[in-house]
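Kindly inspect this one:
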Amino acid sequence: MKADIREKLQKIDADTTRRLRIAEKPGVLRSLAAILAHSGDSWFLLVGFALLWGFGSGEWKWLGAVCVISILLLAVIVFIIKFSVRRKRPEGEWGQIYRQTDPHSFPSGHAARAALLCVPAIALGPPWFGLILLIWAPLVILARVAMGLHYFSDVIAGAILGAVFALLELLII
């Protein structure tokens, strides 16, 4: 019984991953997916939030500091899981920097970061900021699959991990 359920889930994961993948199909949609896939890079977000902390005022300064700390803590958790599970990334040519620096795909750190940033933005931020991240986060998450860097289950697990981490963070702060 367990094996049947596992096989069905693996088939759904493989089919969904295959349908979402556009990395090998040139065009505007692929270009947009590539930009979105990169927009969740930790270095890019860390620089942005560090600048917000350095030059922001009031709540924005505080938000920048909390985001930097949260991204770094979540990265440690993601890497512990990645190096415990050791699931190889899907085969592909796009995103060699990710494939060389981090060959493991489960869970998706980009999906975890996107959810981590989206949840508190909706709960605490101005409505316009929450709405922007509510649109951005799922697009980043799907772009990682579209560009062939993750399986669908990788991004779902990453998004759940990031959302749970963010909810726990909201309870603490």
User: Anything to note?
Assistant: The two ends are 43 Å apart (CA to CA).
